[in-house]
Design goal:
Blueprint (H helix, E strand, L loop, with lengths): L9 H31 L2 H7 L2 H19 L9 H6 L6 H23 L7 H7 L5 H6 L1 E4 H4 L24 E4 L2 E4 L5 H17 L1 H15 L6 H15 L7 H10 L4
Parallel strand pairs: 1-3
Antiparallel strand pairs: 2-3
Helix pairs in contact: 1-11, 5-10, 9-10, 9-11, 9-12
Length: 262
Protein backbone atom coordinates (compact mmCIF):
# COMPACT_ATOMS: atom_id res chain seq x y z
CA UNK A 1 0.00 0.00 0.00
CA UNK A 2 1.26 3.46 -0.88
CA UNK A 3 0.48 6.27 1.54
CA UNK A 4 0.65 9.83 0.24
CA UNK A 5 1.34 12.70 2.63
CA UNK A 6 0.71 16.39 2.23
CA UNK A 7 3.91 18.04 1.01
CA UNK A 8 3.95 20.45 3.94
CA UNK A 9 3.57 17.82 6.67
CA UNK A 10 6.82 18.19 8.68
CA UNK A 11 6.51 14.78 10.36
CA UNK A 12 6.06 13.03 7.01
CA UNK A 13 9.04 14.91 5.56
CA UNK A 14 11.20 14.00 8.54
CA UNK A 15 10.19 10.36 8.13
CA UNK A 16 11.00 10.55 4.42
CA UNK A 17 14.50 11.86 5.04
CA UNK A 18 15.00 9.49 7.97
CA UNK A 19 14.16 6.54 5.72
CA UNK A 20 16.48 7.95 3.06
CA UNK A 21 19.33 8.20 5.58
CA UNK A 22 18.76 4.61 6.65
CA UNK A 23 18.69 3.50 3.00
CA UNK A 24 21.92 5.39 2.37
CA UNK A 25 23.62 3.68 5.32
CA UNK A 26 22.49 0.24 4.14
CA UNK A 27 23.58 0.99 0.57
CA UNK A 28 27.01 2.06 1.82
CA UNK A 29 27.31 -1.23 3.69
CA UNK A 30 26.27 -3.16 0.58
CA UNK A 31 28.75 -1.16 -1.48
CA UNK A 32 31.61 -2.09 0.87
CA UNK A 33 30.64 -5.77 0.77
CA UNK A 34 30.51 -5.62 -3.03
CA UNK A 35 33.95 -4.02 -3.14
CA UNK A 36 35.33 -6.90 -1.07
CA UNK A 37 33.88 -9.35 -3.59
CA UNK A 38 35.42 -7.42 -6.48
CA UNK A 39 38.86 -7.43 -4.88
CA UNK A 40 38.89 -11.10 -3.94
CA UNK A 41 37.04 -12.80 -6.80
CA UNK A 42 36.49 -12.45 -10.53
CA UNK A 43 32.97 -12.29 -11.94
CA UNK A 44 33.57 -15.72 -13.49
CA UNK A 45 34.41 -17.19 -10.07
CA UNK A 46 31.34 -15.60 -8.53
CA UNK A 47 29.09 -16.94 -11.30
CA UNK A 48 30.59 -20.43 -10.98
CA UNK A 49 30.64 -20.84 -7.20
CA UNK A 50 27.98 -18.53 -5.72
CA UNK A 51 24.77 -19.97 -4.32
CA UNK A 52 22.33 -19.53 -7.22
CA UNK A 53 19.40 -18.28 -5.11
CA UNK A 54 21.61 -15.81 -3.22
CA UNK A 55 23.17 -14.42 -6.40
CA UNK A 56 19.80 -14.07 -8.15
CA UNK A 57 18.34 -12.26 -5.14
CA UNK A 58 21.31 -9.88 -4.97
CA UNK A 59 21.09 -9.12 -8.69
CA UNK A 60 17.34 -8.51 -8.53
CA UNK A 61 17.71 -6.24 -5.48
CA UNK A 62 20.52 -4.23 -7.10
CA UNK A 63 18.55 -3.83 -10.32
CA UNK A 64 15.42 -2.76 -8.47
CA UNK A 65 17.33 -0.20 -6.41
CA UNK A 66 19.04 1.19 -9.47
CA UNK A 67 15.74 1.53 -11.34
CA UNK A 68 14.09 3.27 -8.39
CA UNK A 69 16.80 5.80 -7.57
CA UNK A 70 17.59 6.57 -11.21
CA UNK A 71 13.89 7.37 -11.76
CA UNK A 72 14.01 10.22 -9.21
CA UNK A 73 14.57 13.56 -10.99
CA UNK A 74 17.85 15.30 -10.07
CA UNK A 75 17.67 18.06 -7.48
CA UNK A 76 17.68 21.64 -8.70
CA UNK A 77 18.67 24.88 -7.07
CA UNK A 78 14.97 25.69 -6.75
CA UNK A 79 14.04 22.56 -4.82
CA UNK A 80 11.36 23.16 -2.18
CA UNK A 81 13.49 21.73 0.60
CA UNK A 82 16.19 24.34 0.07
CA UNK A 83 13.82 27.23 -0.34
CA UNK A 84 12.12 26.55 3.00
CA UNK A 85 14.73 28.06 5.32
CA UNK A 86 17.64 28.93 3.07
CA UNK A 87 19.93 31.62 4.33
CA UNK A 88 23.33 33.00 3.35
CA UNK A 89 26.33 30.71 3.14
CA UNK A 90 28.53 30.87 6.22
CA UNK A 91 32.29 30.48 6.28
CA UNK A 92 33.95 28.61 9.15
CA UNK A 93 34.52 31.75 11.21
CA UNK A 94 30.85 32.65 10.90
CA UNK A 95 29.84 29.11 11.83
CA UNK A 96 32.00 29.27 14.95
CA UNK A 97 30.54 32.68 15.81
CA UNK A 98 27.03 31.34 15.33
CA UNK A 99 27.74 28.37 17.59
CA UNK A 100 29.11 30.59 20.34
CA UNK A 101 26.35 33.19 20.07
CA UNK A 102 23.50 30.69 19.95
CA UNK A 103 24.96 28.69 22.84
CA UNK A 104 25.10 31.89 24.88
CA UNK A 105 21.53 32.74 23.89
CA UNK A 106 20.31 29.25 24.88
CA UNK A 107 22.03 29.55 28.25
CA UNK A 108 20.56 33.01 28.86
CA UNK A 109 17.06 31.85 28.01
CA UNK A 110 17.43 28.77 30.19
CA UNK A 111 18.34 30.89 33.21
CA UNK A 112 15.60 33.44 32.48
CA UNK A 113 12.73 31.01 32.06
CA UNK A 114 13.77 28.56 34.75
CA UNK A 115 12.88 31.21 37.33
CA UNK A 116 9.24 31.07 36.24
CA UNK A 117 9.14 27.38 35.33
CA UNK A 118 6.97 24.75 36.98
CA UNK A 119 7.70 21.04 37.45
CA UNK A 120 5.66 18.52 35.50
CA UNK A 121 2.30 17.80 37.06
CA UNK A 122 1.13 14.36 38.15
CA UNK A 123 -0.74 13.29 34.98
CA UNK A 124 2.14 14.29 32.71
CA UNK A 125 4.69 12.64 35.00
CA UNK A 126 2.72 9.41 34.88
CA UNK A 127 2.28 9.59 31.11
CA UNK A 128 5.99 10.16 30.44
CA UNK A 129 7.39 7.79 33.07
CA UNK A 130 7.45 4.86 30.62
CA UNK A 131 9.74 6.78 28.28
CA UNK A 132 11.97 9.03 30.40
CA UNK A 133 14.01 8.50 33.56
CA UNK A 134 12.76 9.92 36.88
CA UNK A 135 15.80 12.20 37.04
CA UNK A 136 14.97 13.84 33.68
CA UNK A 137 11.32 14.29 34.58
CA UNK A 138 12.19 15.74 37.99
CA UNK A 139 14.73 18.22 36.59
CA UNK A 140 12.70 19.64 33.70
CA UNK A 141 10.74 22.84 34.19
CA UNK A 142 7.78 23.91 32.05
CA UNK A 143 6.81 27.45 31.03
CA UNK A 144 3.54 28.07 29.17
CA UNK A 145 3.70 31.56 27.73
CA UNK A 146 0.00 31.68 26.91
CA UNK A 147 -0.87 31.14 30.57
CA UNK A 148 1.56 33.83 31.65
CA UNK A 149 0.27 36.32 29.12
CA UNK A 150 3.76 36.82 27.68
CA UNK A 151 2.86 36.01 24.09
CA UNK A 152 5.38 34.21 21.90
CA UNK A 153 9.07 33.76 22.55
CA UNK A 154 11.04 36.64 21.05
CA UNK A 155 14.57 36.56 19.75
CA UNK A 156 16.78 39.63 19.82
CA UNK A 157 20.30 39.04 18.55
CA UNK A 158 22.62 41.56 16.97
CA UNK A 159 24.15 39.20 14.41
CA UNK A 160 21.75 39.06 11.45
CA UNK A 161 24.01 36.90 9.27
CA UNK A 162 22.46 33.75 10.68
CA UNK A 163 19.18 35.01 12.14
CA UNK A 164 17.37 32.21 10.26
CA UNK A 165 19.02 29.72 12.62
CA UNK A 166 16.94 31.16 15.47
CA UNK A 167 13.48 31.15 13.90
CA UNK A 168 11.83 29.82 17.05
CA UNK A 169 8.66 31.86 17.29
CA UNK A 170 6.67 29.58 15.01
CA UNK A 171 7.55 26.42 16.95
CA UNK A 172 5.14 24.79 19.40
CA UNK A 173 7.87 24.65 22.03
CA UNK A 174 11.55 25.39 22.49
CA UNK A 175 13.82 23.41 24.80
CA UNK A 176 16.58 25.31 26.58
CA UNK A 177 18.52 22.44 28.18
CA UNK A 178 16.22 21.45 31.07
CA UNK A 179 13.61 24.19 30.55
CA UNK A 180 10.81 23.88 27.99
CA UNK A 181 9.01 27.02 26.84
CA UNK A 182 5.67 26.38 25.14
CA UNK A 183 4.50 28.94 22.58
CA UNK A 184 1.25 27.04 22.21
CA UNK A 185 -0.98 24.98 24.46
CA UNK A 186 0.91 22.05 25.95
CA UNK A 187 -0.07 18.70 24.44
CA UNK A 188 1.19 15.16 25.05
CA UNK A 189 2.99 15.08 21.71
CA UNK A 190 4.61 18.49 22.07
CA UNK A 191 5.71 17.62 25.61
CA UNK A 192 7.22 14.33 24.50
CA UNK A 193 9.07 16.03 21.64
CA UNK A 194 10.46 18.68 23.97
CA UNK A 195 11.59 16.07 26.50
CA UNK A 196 13.52 14.24 23.79
CA UNK A 197 15.49 17.45 23.25
CA UNK A 198 16.02 17.72 27.02
CA UNK A 199 17.60 14.27 26.96
CA UNK A 200 19.78 15.25 23.99
CA UNK A 201 20.95 18.32 25.91
CA UNK A 202 21.66 16.21 28.99
CA UNK A 203 23.75 13.61 27.17
CA UNK A 204 25.53 15.93 24.72
CA UNK A 205 25.87 19.07 26.80
CA UNK A 206 24.77 22.49 25.57
CA UNK A 207 27.99 23.38 23.66
CA UNK A 208 28.04 20.10 21.71
CA UNK A 209 24.28 20.16 21.09
CA UNK A 210 24.55 23.68 19.70
CA UNK A 211 27.50 22.82 17.48
CA UNK A 212 25.76 19.77 16.03
CA UNK A 213 22.57 21.74 15.43
CA UNK A 214 24.29 24.70 13.75
CA UNK A 215 26.59 22.63 11.53
CA UNK A 216 23.74 20.35 10.42
CA UNK A 217 21.47 23.32 9.71
CA UNK A 218 24.16 25.07 7.68
CA UNK A 219 24.70 21.84 5.72
CA UNK A 220 21.06 20.96 5.08
CA UNK A 221 19.45 24.45 5.12
CA UNK A 222 16.29 23.00 6.66
CA UNK A 223 15.43 22.57 10.33
CA UNK A 224 13.57 19.28 9.87
CA UNK A 225 16.64 17.69 8.27
CA UNK A 226 18.85 18.45 11.28
CA UNK A 227 19.38 14.99 12.86
CA UNK A 228 18.70 16.30 16.38
CA UNK A 229 15.29 17.49 15.21
CA UNK A 230 14.62 14.54 12.93
CA UNK A 231 15.27 12.07 15.74
CA UNK A 232 12.89 13.94 18.05
CA UNK A 233 10.17 13.79 15.40
CA UNK A 234 10.85 10.11 14.79
CA UNK A 235 10.53 9.22 18.47
CA UNK A 236 7.49 11.50 18.82
CA UNK A 237 5.82 9.58 15.99
CA UNK A 238 6.49 6.28 17.73
CA UNK A 239 5.01 7.66 20.93
CA UNK A 240 1.92 8.99 19.16
CA UNK A 241 1.35 5.75 17.25
CA UNK A 242 1.20 3.61 20.40
CA UNK A 243 1.61 5.10 23.87
CA UNK A 244 1.26 1.64 25.39
CA UNK A 245 4.47 0.45 23.70
CA UNK A 246 7.09 1.80 26.08
CA UNK A 247 10.68 2.54 25.08
CA UNK A 248 13.47 4.40 26.85
CA UNK A 249 14.39 7.65 25.10
CA UNK A 250 17.80 7.91 26.78
CA UNK A 251 18.79 4.56 25.25
CA UNK A 252 17.65 5.75 21.82
CA UNK A 253 19.65 8.97 22.13
CA UNK A 254 22.75 7.16 23.42
CA UNK A 255 22.55 4.83 20.42
CA UNK A 256 22.49 7.72 17.96
CA UNK A 257 25.40 9.37 19.78
CA UNK A 258 27.46 6.16 19.72
CA UNK A 259 26.80 5.74 16.01
CA UNK A 260 27.57 9.43 15.35
CA UNK A 261 24.19 9.94 13.71
CA UNK A 262 23.79 13.45 15.11
Amino acid sequence: MSVRHETGDPVALVQLNGDLRHAHAELQSAHRATQRLRVRFTVEEIARHAEPAMLSTAQAAATGLYNFFSSIPPLTENSAARETEEGPDLDENQVLAAIADIAAYMSEQRDKYRLMGEPLDGPHLQMMSSFFSPSVLARVRIVELAKLGLGRLEIKRQANTYHHLLELTHMASVTFADVVVFNETLSARSLFHALVHAVQFQLLGLPRYTELFVRAFVATRWRFNVPLEAHAFELESRFAANREQAFFVEDEVRLWISRERY
